Amino acid sequence: MRLYGYLASASTLALVLTAAAPARAADANAADGDAGPALEELLVTAQKRSENLQDTPIAISVLTSQGLEDRNVYSLVDLGDGAIPSLKVAPFFSRPGALIMNVRGIGVLSDSNQPARDQGVGIYVDGVYLGRPQGLGTALYDVESIEVLKGPQGTLFGRNTEGGAVSITTKRPTGEFGLMAKAGVSNFAGYVGEMHLDLPRVANISVKLDGVVTARDGWVKNPLATAEDFGGYDKRALRARLLWEPVANFTADYAYDAAYDATTTLYQQFLAASTYPTALAPAAGNTASTKRIRNATFGVPQRESIGRTEGHRLTLDWKLSDHALVKSITSYRDLTQSQWDNGSVAQSAGVFRTGATFLNQDYGRYSLAYFKQQQSSEEVQLIGDLPRIKYVLGALYYRERVSDNARAFATNTFTDAVGVNGVPRAIDPLTQRIDRASEVTTKSYGAFGQATYTPPLLDDALHITAGGRFTRDEKKGRMRTINNVNFPLGSAGRIIGGLTSPNPLDESWERFDPILNVAFDVSEDILVYGKYSTGYKSGGANSRSLRYAPFDPETVAMFEAGAKAEFMDRRVRVNVSAYDGRYKDIQLDFSAQYLQTDPVTGALLQTQRTTTETTNAPGKGKLRGFEADVAFAVTDELTVSGSYAYNKVKIPDTLNPFPQANGRIITVPIPIYQVYTPENAASFSIDYSRPAFGEARFVAHLDGNYGDGYYANYTDVAYDPVTRAVTIRQPKGDSSFLVNARLSIADLPTGPGRTTVSIWSRNLLNQEHVFAKFLSDRTGLGGFFNEPRTFGLEVSMKM
Asked: Pairing with 404, which of 208, 312, 559, 644 sits 20 to 30 Å away (CA)?
């Protein structure tokens, strides 16, 4: 009964809230000369075939190419403002080169920056799964649409889609000449350039070339003149796509892409001093501030973190008949990512103080991490229909090899007793000790099938979908280095350099994920459905661990009910969904400081570092929520749209195996917070277009995005061993309301083409909030502010 209550509430909210994807009014006169305004039809491929969004019984949010342009979205990082309320995009700590993606509160709870750990939301580009969070911040190509498929997608999309899937579709070659070129400038010395060229078809081959360049300086100044500022980026991407159509029933679609993504770390600002009794006083120059600052407190060495991706994709479509299509998707991709993180300087100033003076004490924690991945995959699908049955059958093979290493050290030294002045240390980062290094090879095999049956009753209004997927995952890996101690192959269990060589990872898991969906056409324009589906995230091992012990997969099982409706001759669209699920074996990380000592003398061999263990939470967690989307074509010129999402996640209390700040083990399970998930989020947009002069049009877009804040750490507690009282101290990020806008004079006749001139702004009101907060007994409260207002001018030309 709870689901029906959610659905009723969602239906009510849908009348006053607005939808995630801007839906522009379409001129229906093309189909009916006297028809009024209507919303454009949205086509999705959530069920491996092109269908109308309103006929697909799945909760889906869509951003079209026009919606992405209106919001000035050049990479997935830009969706972090909340354009799709059920989707949360955030950097891993201070690193925009490694993204966290959560849908409905499911995805990653902690460290996604590990070779043997997977995300819980699958990212796909033209049907190819991207296995790592690194590389997701690269510039997007000529995107047709971004579909966010909510809830478990374990049947058609497979492993690591327990939260859902983000499916990005790019534009195919047209076979006719076409050119779109864009150039723009913005504040913070920003610039952008785009080129999309379609060449005429020759010998049944169509070619499309895409290039994107966008860059911006950092928005927090680094006082060290020779170092990079904080929060800048330089993104470049190139793609060539060839479409060969030798006969009417066969196509070969090949694409090659290469991207370069250079970013500088975000700046963790010092917000408040610690009140913990043993806290260290911050340096005198490290003044706490609850306002976004423009200049960092101390200058530190800082360089760009560089990600490079390169890939090949070949998609073959063979139409066996009017009712059957065989599709093959073959891909190979390379990824490298360096991560140079010195953004916590404000927090670390004073951390290393051991006496009454700051003189000669070190600060500025530089964290260097290198990541490398190679992946290949092959997926075969049979998509067809029979009388009263639509079906999809398929099989997938996926393989990836991933390796990483990391080191961390202090970059600066105070030159006075009070901690005002400091200088960088003369050190070569690449000569510093390796804290950890690991490698893992993953193989995944899957076979899936899904069919929709429309029985000959109720005027063909009933549709029953059933399916399932069998998956086998295999992971083999090992820790190569811990605390600069190298472990050769076959050394497991031996004492080397005072450390026990960890056992290698050699695990496999098998899983079956079913789906059952019953949909009913209440009328030609109203669809209701109920769905049960499951999904899972693969197991693995933690590369920050001293033991490299394996952990098990986590799973989600979810009931969902929804309705999709259009009214007033497609002027109004209302989609609602409600869900209730169980979240089991949730993968949780717990960390503590580790001191390496000589096994004979007991002498300290290394300085402190963090060690982390991953455990599966006991029992079952709970998921529930609802979503409401609505769009209204008020007139041919004006469309209003938006959405609301409520996501509630309950994770079982879990025992922390490590000593806490008081040096004692907490003997009771502690509460766990869901991270990177606002409980309430909403978005609206207003789109207006009308003739300006001659053939030109005036186009305006405004959107607003609200989130009520989220946790960045899922637990932080103080424990009284006498009373056994557990005090929760984890701070929550601030709520936010971000407004974006774009004004354009479009379709100006200029020679053989049309020109559009636009001005735009992201965070138009210059709203500021701390989206992620972190509390330390030693250094106090720190956090990351959102970006300040950015604005710019763009000129684009189409031929």
From this structure: 312
Q: What is the CA radius of gyration of the chain?
A: 27
> Are the C-beta atoms of residues 561 and 4 closer than 8 Å to each other?
yes
pLDDT value, residue 357: 81
Please state the rounded mean pLDDT for residues 500-518.
96
**Residue 267 in tokens:** 């700046």
Closest CA to 66 of 37, 30, 23: 23
Contact call for residues 742 and 70 (beta carbons, < 8 A): yes
DSSP H/E element including 325 = strand 324-341
Look at residue 12 and tell me whether its pLDDT is greater than 70: no
Phi/psi at 94 (nearest 5 deg)? Answer: -105, 15
pLDDT band at 95 (very low <50, low <70, confident <90, very high): confident
What angle (nearest 5°) sits at the alpha carbon of residue 208, between those of residues 202 and 213?
155
Say if residue 426's pLDDT is above 60: yes
How far is it, in rounded angstroms, from Cα 57 to Cα 531? 8
Sheet (strand 60-64) strand order: 60-64, 143-150, 164-170, 121-125, 128-130
Instruction: Tell me the C-alpha distance between 221 and 231, whole Å.
Output: 9
Please tell me the distance from the alpha carbon of residue 710 to that of residue 116, in angstroms, as a whole number.
26
- The rounded distance, in Å, linking the Cα atoms of 601 and 212 is 59
Least confident range of 208-217, 357-366, 496-505, 604-613: 604-613
Report the distance separating Cα 722 and Cα 727, nearest Å: 13
More confident residue, 178 or 111: 178
Q: How many residues does the chain have?
A: 799
CA-CA distance, 544 to 483, in Å (whole number)? 11
The token pair at 696 is: 């030109």
Residue carrying the six token digits 């950092």: 218
More confident residue, 122 or 613: 122
| Residue type at position 523 | S
Q: Is the pLDDT of residue 15 over 70?
A: no
Q: Mention every residue, 6+ apart, whose C-beta is less than 8 A from residue 457.
A: none
Closest CA to 60 of 679, 794, 629: 629
CA-CA distances (angstroms) from residue 237 to 141, 268, 788? 7, 29, 25
The widest CA-to-CA distance across the chain, in whole angstroms, is 91
Quick one: which of 266, 344, 333, 336 has its CA closest to 306?
336
**Residue 769 tokens, joined:** 């909030």
C-alpha–C-alpha distance, residues 42 and 567, integer Å: 16
Rounded-to-integer distance, Cα 259 and Cα 97, Å: 13
How far apart CA 1 and CA 24 sit, in angstroms, is 36
Question: Letter for the amino acid at 466?
Answer: A
Q: For residues 103 and 157, is the Cβ–Cβ distance under 8 A?
A: no
What is the spatial distance between Cα 70 and Cα 63, in angstroms, rounded to a whole number?
A: 10
pLDDT of residue 694: 87
Decide: helix, strand or coil at residue 65: helix
CB proximity list for 569: less than 8 A, separation 6 or greater? 28, 35, 36, 38
Per residue in 718-752, pLDDT (tens digit) is: 656 566 666 666 789 999 999 999 999 999 998 88
The number of beta carbons lying within 10 Å of the beta carbon of residue 629 is: 32
Put residue 569 in one of left, alpha, beta given phi > 0 → left and psi -120 to 50 → alpha.
Answer: left
Q: Check if the beta carbon of residue 735 is closer than 8 Å to that of residue 779.
A: no
pLDDT score at 93: 86
How far apart CA 130 and CA 120 sit, in angstroms, is: 12
CA 735 → CA 100, 160, 707, 711, 770, distances in Å? 19, 29, 6, 11, 8
Q: Tell me the CA distances in angstroms from 500 to 100, 405, 444, 596, 610, one per residue in order.
A: 32, 19, 31, 11, 17
